[in-house]
Amino acid sequence: MGRKILFITTDQQRYDTLRCNGGELSRTPVVDSLAAQGVRYERAVPQSVVCMPSRCTMLTGQYPTTHGVWMNGVALPVDAPSVAAVLHQAGYRTALVGKPHFEPFLDPFNRFTENRVAATGLPTAQSLQADGGMGPHRGFDHLEFAGHSPVGSLHYGRWMVENHFDALGGFYAVLDKDLEVNADGGGDTGAPQVQVNPVAREWYHTDWVADRTIAWLNGLDADDDWFCWMSFPDPHHPWDPPASELGRVDWRDVPLPAGYVEDPAERERILDDKPRHWRLWYDGKLVSNYEAPTRWVPATMTADQVREVNAVNAVEVELIDEAIGRVLAAAAAKGWADDLDVVFTTDHGELQGDFGLLFKGPYHVDGLMRLPLIWRPAPGAGIEAATVTAPVGLVDLAPTFCAIAGVDAQPWMEGHALPHHDADASARGFERVLTEWESELFGVAVYLRTITRDGWVCTTYRPGTVHDGSEGELYDLSEDPLQQVNRWDDAAVRSIRDDLVADLVDHLPTPRVPRLPVDAPV
Amino acid sequence: MRASQRRQRVIEVSAERAWEVVGQAALLHLWFPGITSCVVEGDTRTIVLGSGVSLSETILTNDPLQRRFQYRISGGLFAEHLGTIDVIALEEHRCLAVYSSDADPGVMAIVLGGATGGALEELARQLETGVGPAIDALTTTET
User: What residue in A sits closest to B34 (Cα-Cα)?
Assistant: First the structure.
């Protein structure tokens, strides 16, 4: 019998939403306990700050440039390499329960397996594998999917329609009548994408994901080895958790985030010090990410709206924490407590009021780039609790899962098994992490490449429709943890900038040719 | 908001051969992945998508001389739509198929653009290998 792996992801969750990372709003005792027993990473960085490219990185262990999903709406080829397939071939039972998003959601033609599999009633689909053979879709022999709402063809939506049809109307409508991402506000303050949802807690997708995970675990034999990716759609917007839970955090008591600059003039001065797409978005003149509502102008956001978004987000984080607790209890009841590795992370962060902005986009700052990442090794593995300050990436997860399972990391993986402590990180060269952004949407093209190293974050821009390629961002994380002072043009740190840019160029992966097409906006 | 998408594919057959498929409006579902059925009555074509959604299209242009096929999806999610397929001769046994989608809301242009890209790939596969349901349907028609 080998070690079991519970891989928990949330969607769009900030580093500082966990108590163990210094957060003060949400109570997260379950994840905090995992952190206390395991390895807590203080500088975990995604390779993309949007869902599809980032999730594909977790699955493949490759940078977006390599796996080819360069923006949301680009489908990962069915025969792309997958760590789940590696584990499946090694004898592991494999499941993905919750949000997948390796393929576009918006798919009226039903071209993509994720959107088709729920209709079949089968546990998985047979797909072409990276080795040329056939096997379970992306290596998972059990698939049960959920999205951010019950609308659509995924398993959760079908379950809601079949069992709780009357509750569907309580959820926020993600798209408006023009199929634009909805800008409507709600709650007490009119904050965008906030809605009071009367749905019963046990019908909400967070508990559904935990319930379905427990059901799958209960169907396994006690001596099975297994890998389960439990993927919560929250706390990604829309922020519409069950109304019964809203009393956990009163938005009126929520302090404004440190990254929210209250004085509009100072806020705009900070934005103007960054490449121009920052201020253009703030003023409602440019949107370069489909998931940011085009009809919402960030400059109109009030301080109370920031408070309410943070409060409702915190409620969703608490519900996830409690759901994880139920799953861990179920695993323990099966006798797996000593053999179970738990990895908790998210695909990217959320601006959540920083710089007067919400949601995400081509903005490589901590709100989106600093992720919660906790690895609680199996107690029987003999790995001591630690805090790792060295930079690591989501690209390192796939080889970590291989290491846990006792399987060789695959040659196509571009990361390395996560370090156990800082000395391990130093010995194994965990020095830098790269992050990529590419988007081409409605005539707007933006391209960023970022390196995180030595306490600096350095972003270069390629020519697009907004930038001429000369722009950049350079932040000193120790002196300027909120990234409010762009030192790209500061002569005093020119040598640091030049060194980081050269290092970035040296380590960029070779682009996949030909580039994969965009099949949908998301 | 309106948007426009264009996909193209070089196909290693003559433009005349490619047009034999493209110009037959009722064959669309045989080379367009994600369309499960297609019925033509007069200048109205009704298609059913893989999700079960049914769309009514008006055929606007079916010009064998220009090798241009145009149609408009009416109603449903669309405030406006125009689909255009052009088959352009490059060499004696080589042509370029261009599939354009203009739509309001613009999101649908992107979704259609992705699907039409898949359709051109399937069209090319069937034409270049001589194997596939659209080719079979042509053969039946020819005999």
Answer: A109
Residue A210 sits in a domain whose CATH number is 3.40.720.10
* Residue A218 in tokens: 């209960």
Q: What is the pLDDT of residue B142?
A: 66
Whether A256 and A307 have beta carbons less than 8 Å apart is answered as yes
| CB atoms B105 and A178 under 8 Å | yes
Q: Quick one: tokens of A366?
A: 């901590």
Q: What is the CA radius of gyration of chain B?
A: 14
B87: part of which helix (H) or strand (E)? strand B80-91
- Count of alpha carbons within 13 angstroms of residue A407, beta-carbon side: 23
Total number of domains constituting chain A:
1
Is the pLDDT at A31 greater than 70? The verdict is yes
Residues of chain B in contact with residue A290, where contact means CB-CB under 8 angstroms, are 107
CATH number of B3-142: 3.30.530.20
Please report whether residue A443 resides in a domain: no
Backbone angles phi, psi at A388, to 5 degrees: -105, 125
Sorted by where each begins, the domain ranges of chain B are 3-142
**Count of C-beta atoms within a 10 Å radius of residue A339:** 17
| Least CB–CB distance from A442: residue in B3, B34, B118 | B3
Which residues of chain B have a CB within 8 Å of the CB of A519?
111, 113-115, 117-118
Q: Helix or strand or coil: residue A481? A: coil
Q: What is the DSSP string of A291-333?
A: TS-TT--GGG--HHHHHHHHHHHHHHHHHHHHHHHHHHHHHHH
Amino acid at the residue A104: P
CB burial of residue A18 (10 Å; 0-12, 13-18, 19+): buried
Q: Whole-angstrom Cα distance, residue A290 to residue A72?
A: 9
| Residue A431 predicted with pLDDT over 70 | yes
| pLDDT number for residue A198 | 98
Taking only the tens place, the pLDDT of each residue in A65-119 is 999 999 999 999 999 999 999 999 999 999 999 999 999 999 999 999 999 998 8
- Does residue A33 fall inside a structural domain? yes
- Domain region containing A349: 4-429
A363 located within any domain = yes
How many secondary structure helices (H) and strands (E) does chain A include? 14, 17
Instruction: State which residue of chain B sits closest to A177, comparing Cα positions.
Output: B77
Contacts of A171 by beta carbon, 8 Å cutoff, 6+ apart: A149, A150, A151, A195, A197, A199, A238, A240
Contacts of A442 in chain B (CB under 8 A): 1, 3, 106
Q: Is B50 on the interface with A (CB under 8 A)?
A: yes
Q: Does residue A28 lie within any of the structural domains?
A: yes
